[in-house]
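Recall the central idea of this unit: under ordinary conditions, the amino acid sequence of a chain determines the structure it adopts. In this exercise we apply that idea directly, starting from the sequence alone.
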Amino acid sequence: MRIGLGWTLAALLGLYPECQMAAASRPQAASARGGGRDYIRVSDWAKANNLSFNWTKKEEVLQLSGRSANIRLTVDSTDADVNGVGVRLCFPIAYRDGSALLSQIDAQQTFQPLLSPPRNKPGVTIRHICLDPGHGGSDPGNGVGSRVEKKYTLLLAEELQDQLKRAGFKVSLTRTRDKNVELDSRADTARKRGADLLLSLHFNAAPASASTVRGAEVYCMTPSGAPSSNARGEGASSGYYPGNRSNDKNVYLAYLLQKTLTRVLGAEDRGVHRARFAVLREATMPAVLIEGGFLSNPVEGRNIADPAYRRQMAKAIVEAIAAYKKQVEVSGR
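Accordingly, the structure predicted from this sequence is:
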C-alpha cells in the first residue's frame, strides 16, 4: 500500500520497554499516519532495535539483520520472514517518498514479542496444558474420503497428552470422545480447569482443484483494530476480547510452534496467522490454534492418518511448549 498522506512526527519513547538493548540508548523513531492507522519508518524502527536496514530489491524487498533477529519484509505485502519462519503481518508494508513504513500495531504487537520474548511474573510457571481436539460429534470438520478431521484431532490430542505427561506437564482435554462441544465453551473449559496454555488442534483442507496445497500454520488472536488473516466463520467484530490480554504470549507461542512444526515435520511453512476464532478470542490464558496439515493433499493426508507421523507432530509441539516454558519462566525470575 503506497500512502500519499503527509508525515506527522512524534517521538516513540518506550516503544520496546523490554527489548534486549538499553532503552536509554535508543534513537527516536518518526511516525506517519495513513489509511486511518499509524505507521513508523522501517529504517527508524530497525535502528531503534539494533538491526541493519538494506534493500535487497529497491522499493520492493528489504532485509533487517542483527543479533536479535533477521527479518525480511516486502512492500505492499503482509508476508514477513522472521529468522526463517513465516509471520503474517496485520497490515501490509507501505511505501511513501522513498521510505518503507511499518504499522505501529505490527511494531508493537507482532514484532515486539519476537524481539523481546514475554516474561511471566516471578514464581508463575507453565504446568497445565489444555488440549482442544477440534470438532466432534455432529461436527466432523474437514473430510476427504474416509479421512475426517474430528477423528485425527482427537488422535493427535491423545498422543500429545501422553508425550506432555512424560515431559512433566499436567494435561486435560476439552473432549475425550466423539461428542459435540460448543465453540464458546472450549476456552471456558480451559479456564475452569486452571490451564496455563490452551492449544486447539485442527487439520486443513482445500478444494479438489487445489490438491497440491499443503503445509502447517498456527493462528493466534488478532489485535484489536486489526483485520484477521482468516475471517472465515469468526462472527466477531474487531474490538477487544479476553484473548487480546495475552497478545505477546500468544504471538511468541505461535511462532515457536510454527518453527518446530516446519522443522521437525519438514512441512511447508504457511506462517503464523491471526484470527478471532471463538477458542482464541475467549481464552483467558495464552492460546493458539494449530492447523497441522492438509487432509486434501494426497501426501500430507496419508501422513496425518499415520500414527508415526502424528507422533512426530506431537514431538514438535512438546518441543515448542518446552522452549516457551523455559523462556517465560527463566526470564521472569
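The domain at 128-331 is CATH 3.40.630.40 (Aminopeptidase).
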